[in-house]
C-alpha cells in the first residue's frame, strides 16, 4: 500500500476533483470536465455541499462506476458516449478509493471489472472487422483508456492484504481487458496493453508477498502456452498460409513484449520462458528448405532479443526479488555451451543474405558475449564461482572463435559487422578479462585460455576477413592494449613479466606490420595504420617501440646499418600522430629516449651524410631525424627517471637546439622542456605530503636551469639576428609568391621565438633566485646600454625586451626587479626615437607587468605615475603598438577597486582614447578597445555614471568621436540591456538622444546611429519603444542623410518594427513616397508565410553576433531580397554587404553566384532569338514576380511560339549588361541576334543551361589565366625606348606628355646593376647596343 499511496500524498483529492471539472483546450478534456461537473453536482445536491472539500473519493467513484455501467450498449455512438470521460475519472479516483476505503473498493472490484469488460465487449474488435480503416479512432482511444483504467484497478486491488478471494476475478479482468489485446493489429492498442502489463510487473518487483505475484505467474503461463503452441502448430502441415502468418504475428508481438519485460519478471518465470525461448531458437534454425526462411529469421531474432534480457544482467533497473541467482547463472552457463554448439548451423542459416540475417548474427554474438561478461564478473553467486572458474577457460576461447566466424562472410551487412566487433571489443576491455590476466600467475589454466583467445582473434588478419577489416582490426588493437595493461601495471613491471608480455603480443603486432606491407590498397593500409595508432595510444611509445623494430625490413635499403627501414618508416609517422600530450598510460623513461630514440636519430643523421645518397634520399633521412625528435615532448610528461637521466640529457638537448642543420628541433625541444618543467612544478604544488621524489626532481631541474637558461637566451638573440638577415635580403622587386613565402618564414620565426620565451618563463620560475637575479640584471643593463647607444640597436633591444618579457611572465621577480624593469622601459614608451618595433616590445613587457604584478601597478604611489605615462605617451604612440597599449590599459583597469574614488576618477581620462580606438583600421585594436570598454563597465559597477561618461562624447567637435561614442553605446547596450535593469531603464532616453544625430551630415555618424537603433530595437520591449516610434521612423527615413546608402539596414529595422506593431501603425509614420517599400515588404511577408505553410525553406540565417548586428545587411525574414530583380536572385545590397564570420561566407557564395550568372547572361546574348523572355507587364504598384511560383511559366515566351495574346518581342524584353544588372531603355537599347543556327544547340534547339558550378569554375579559370598573363607581362623584360614606339607604323614618335627625345639617354639606376638584376639589365641594353656583326648583342 505504501508504494501505491506514495504519489497521492502530494495532491489532495479536492484539487484532483477541481482539475477534473476544469475544461482544457482539447475536446476530450472539455467533455471530461462536463461529465465530472455533472457527477459532482449530483453528489453536492445529495450532501447539501457547495464546495469540493465535501466530495469524498468513494462517493465520486460509486457515481462514476454506476454511470459507466449504465452506458454499456452495443449500438452506441463513440462520439456522443461519455464512456471515455468516465474512464478518465475512474482512473484518477481509484487510487484514492483503494487507499482511503480498501473494504469498499474490495467489494466494488467485481462491479468495476464487469463494467470494464462490458466496455471492451462493446468495442468492435480488430479481428471482427477486416478493413481496419473502418474502425473509428474514437473506438481506439476508448479501448486504450479502458486498458489504462483496468491497469489502475488491478494495481489498486493487488496491494490489498485481504483480497485473496478475488484471485479469479483479478485474472478474469487482466485476461479480458489487457492480455487479449496483446496481439491486436492496432499498434497503439497493443503498445498500451504491453505498457500496462509492465506497470503491473514493476509492482511485483517492489512487493515480494501477496497477490502481486499472481499477474507474473499468469503471464508466464500465457507466454509458455503461446511459445509451445507455435512450435506444435508449425509442425502441422495442414495449416493454411493465413493461419501460419497469424501465428507468426501473434508470436512476434509476444516476443516484442518479452524483450522489454523479461528483466523485471521473477527468476522462476525467466528460467521457464528462457528454456522455451532456447527451444524456439533451435526450432527456427532447423527450418526446412521448403519453409519460409524470412519468417524463421524473424522468429530467431525475436527469441535472441528476448534471451538477451536474461543473459545480460548489467542493465537491469530493479534488483531481483530472488537473492540467490545460482539457478540463473547455471542456466546461462548451460545455454552458453548450447549457443556455441549452434554456431555452424547459425552461420549456414544466415548465409542466404536475406533481410534480417545480419541482425540475427549480431544478436547471436551479443548473446554469447553477454553470457561471457556475466560469468567473468564478480556478480555471480558464490555457489557457482568454482564451477565457472573451471568452465570459463574452456568456453571463452570458443566464444572468441564463434563470434569471429560471424564476420567471416562478405555478404553480411556493414552495420552487423560493426555491432559484432563492438561487442567483442567490450568483452576484451572488460574488467573480468583483465582480472584473468592478473590472476594467471596463480591459475595456469587462465594463461592457456588467454593464449587460445589470442590465437582465435589472430584469424581476423586472414584475407577472408579483408572486406571487414575496418571493423575487425580495431579488435586486435584492443586485445593488444588489454593484454599489456592487464599484465603490466601503471607503476611498471619486472623484466620477466615484460619479456612474457612481449612474447605474447609481439606476434600480433608484427603480423599487423607485415600485413601493411602485403596489402596494396589504400583503404586497408589506413585501417592498419588506425589499429597501430590505437595500440600506441593505449600503451605509449616506449612499450610499442619495444615490440616493433623500426630498423627491420625485408629489403636492406639503408646505407647505414641501424637506421630506420624504408619499409617501416610509416610506423614512425603513426607513432608521432598517435601520441598525446594530455595523458600517458605509462610513465615514460627519459633513458629510453636517450638511448633508443636518439640512437635511431643518430643513425639516420649519419645516413643523410652518406655520399651515395641523392639529395632527395638525404632529405628523407633528415626528416626522419626530426620525426624521432618529435617524440621528445611525450617523454616529458611525468617521466620516471628525471633525477638519473635529465642532467646528462640536458647537455644533449642544448647542443641539439643549436644545431643549424635541424632548425625544427628548437621548437620541439622547447615544447618538451616547458611541459617537463610545468609538470614537475604542478606536482610539487599539489603534493600535500611533501613527497621527497617530487622535491628531488624539482631540485634537479632547478640545477639544470643554470645551463639551459643561458642557452635559451643566446638562441633568442640568434633568432632575432636571423630575422634581420632575412629582412635585409628582401629585394624590392621580389615576386608576390616569394614575398608570401618570406612572410610565412617570418611568421615561423616569430612562433619559434615565442616557444623559446615560454621555455624561458617555465625554467625561470624554478631557477635559483640568485642566478635569476644576476641574469635579470644583465638583461636590464644591456637594455639600458642599447637604448643609450648612438647606433641602430633596434634588433638587440627587441631581443632583450623579449627576454625581459619571458622573465616577467615567469612571475618569479621581486618588487625591486619589477621596479627596475619598469624604469627601464618607461623611456621607450614615452619616446618614438627607437622605432615602432621597440615601442611595441616595450608595451608587451609592460602588459605582462600589468597582468602578473597587479599590486605593483595599482599601488597608490605608482598608479598616478602610470596613468600619466599612458596619457602623456599618446602623442608619440606608434600605430603598431596600439593593440598592446590597450591591453596594458585593460590590465590596469581590471586591478581597480570600485570603492576607491581616486581610481574611479581615472576612468574618464582614459575613455577618450578607448573610444577613438573603436574606429581603428586594425581589427585586433578594435576588439581590444571593446574589451577595455567592457572591463571599465565591470570595474565602474555603476552603469548610470559610466553611460553618462560615454554620452558626454556625443558632444565632441569631430564626427569621428561622435561616431565612436555611438558605437560604444551600441556595444554596451548589446551586452547589458537584457541583464542589467539599469541599462534597460536608461535605454529609451539614450535612444531619444542618439536619434538626434540623424541630422548629421557625416556618413560615419549615420551608420553608427543606425547600428545603435538596430541594437536598441532588439533590446527594448514594446511598451518602451512605442512612444519613440515617430522620431525613430522619421529620422531613419530622411532623405539626403544616408538613407539610400544604408537602405538595407533601415529596411531590417522597419521589418522588426512591423513585426512588433503591425503595418497599420508603422505605415502612417513613413513618408508618402516610401509607402511602396512597405507594400513590397508586406507582400514578401505574405509569400514567406505561404512558403512556410508549404514546407519550403528560405535558408536564411539569424544574426546573433554584435559585429553581424552592426554591419550585416541581411535579415532572417526575406534574406535581404528587397528590390529583387526576380531573375538574378540577388540585390546590390546583398552583393555589397560587409559582414564577418558566417555572413562573410554567405557574401562569398553570393558573389560567386553573381559571377556565374553574369557569365550565363553573357552567353545568352548570341542566342536571344530563341531564348525565353519574361512578360513583366503585370509588375506595377510594388508587385514583384516570383520566379519560383509554378504559375510563372505562363509569363515565359519563346520566339518559335506564335503568340495570340499580342505580346510582342519588342514590348517588355529584358536585357542585362556584363555585370548582371537589368538594362531598362527604349527599343534602341534592345538587340536580338538573328542567327538561329548559333542560338540552337544539341538539345532539340533549346538553349542548354549552364550550371552555377560550371560557370563559376569557368570564371575562376578565366581569372586565373588573366592573372598569370599579367604576371608574365610584368616579368617580361621592358625594352628600352618602348614608350616611344609607334603603334601605327615603324620608327619612333614623341608624345605630348614625354619630356625627352627618343634615345636621348639611358637612365642609370644603382639597383639595376646588382648581382641579382644584372642579367635583366644586360638583356635590356641588348635592344640598343649592337655587336660587331651588326646584330644585337646577345646576353652572356
TrEMBL record:
Its main location: nucleus. The lineage of its organism: Eukaryota, Sar, Stramenopiles, Ochrophyta, Bacillariophyta. GO terms for cellular component: cytoplasm; nucleus. Residues 33-282 form the RRP12 N-terminal HEAT domain. SUPFAM superfamilies: ARM repeat. This is Ribosomal RNA-processing protein 12-like conserved domain-containing protein. Residues 906-1031 form the Stalled ribosome sensor GCN1-like HEAT repeats region domain. Belongs to the RRP12 family. It comes from the Eukaryota. GO terms for molecular function: tubulin binding. Keywords: Coiled coil, Nucleus, Repeat. Residues 424-716 form the RRP12 HEAT domain. Residues 1162-1181, 1219-1297, 1315-1340 are annotated as: Disordered. It is found in: Nucleus. Residues 1251-1265 have a biased composition (Basic and acidic residues). Residues 729-756 form a coiled coil. It holds the Pfam family HEAT_RRP12_N.
